[in-house]
Specification:
Elements (H helix, E strand, L loop, with lengths): L1 H4 L10 H4 E3 L5 H15 L1 E5 L5 H6 L17 E3 L19 E4 L10 E7 L1 E2 L8 E9 L3 E2 L2 E5 H11 L1 H9 L2 E7 L2 E7 L2 E4 L2 E5 L13 H18 L5 E4 L6 E5 L3 E5 L2 E2 L3 E7 L1 H11 L6
Parallel strand pairs: 1-2, 5-7, 6-18
Antiparallel strand pairs: 2-15, 3-18, 4-16, 5-15, 5-18, 7-18, 8-17, 9-14, 9-16, 10-11, 12-13
Helix pairs in contact: 5-6, 5-7, 6-7
Amino acid sequence: SYRENRIEAKKPEAKLEDIELIYNKNQYETYLNNCAERLKKFGLVVVRQRGLDTEELIQDFLPSGASVVSTHFGRIEDLRTDNTTNQNTDQLGYTDAAINLHTDQPFIADPPGMLILKCFSFYTSFFMSIGMQLLQCIRRADTGGSNTLVNACDAALYLREIDPNAYYLLTTVPVHFHRKQKQFESIHIGPIIETNVDEIKQVRHSYFTLAPFRFPFWLTTAYYKAYRTYASILYDPQCQYKVTLNSGDFVLYDNYKMLHAREAFTGPRHLRGIYFRQIDVWKKFENYTKDKNV
C-alpha cells in the first residue's frame, strides 16, 4: 500500500563532524574513499591540511586524460578582491561583501556540478556538463569569510513532505535565471527544483540572478509563499553546515545539490574555485575506492 511503501522525509540535520576529514598523504586510497562516501551521502566533504598546490589537488579528482571545466572566469577562479588573473570579475564574488545561499551558474543549461573551494576559490564552466565545485583556501580572511552550505535536495524532499503544493509549484513553474555582465550574458528558463520522475535531478537557486517572475499575476501569491516556505528550510540553522577554511583546506561539493554562502570579511582573503564534471570525479573514485558503487 501507499503507506507501507512511503518513506517519510525528515528535516535535514547538518553536523560538521560528518563531513570533515584530515588529509594524510600516507593513506591516499583511504582519503579518496572517505571523500567519495561523504559526497555520496551528504553532497559535500571538507578536507583539512591538504596543502596549497592547486594543480596537485586537482589531480586528486581527475582520471587520466580528463581536465577541469573552464568558465567565463577562466580555468581556475581566484576569489579575491584584488584579482588580476580572471576575466569577467564584475560580480559579487570578487568583493568582500556577504553572499547569501545560492547555486553557481544556474543561468546556464548544464552548470558545473562539482565545485572545489580550496582556501582559494573556484567556480563553474558552461560549455560542458559539470556538477562538482571545489573551493580551496589559500589565505583565510582576517575576520569573517566563513562559508555556509545546505543540501537543497534534502530540503526539497522535506518540503514535499510538509507542503506538497509548494513542492509542486517549485518543480513545475519555470522561472528565468539571468546573468548579464559587461562582456557576458546567459539566460536559463526552468523550475527551481528540476525532477526526473520522482527523483530530484538538480536545484537552481540564486537570488541575485533570479529574474523578475513572468508567470500570470494570479499565481504570484501562491508562488511567493512556496518560495518562502522552501527558503525557511534552507535558512534553518539545523540544516546548515558552517565551515571556516584555513590555509590548505578545501571543500568539494555537488553544485546540483548544495547551496553555498559566504560571510562578509576583512583582509586579503583568497579562495580558489575549480569545477569538475561529475562523471570525471566518480570515475576517479571508482579507480581507487573499495566500494565500486559509490
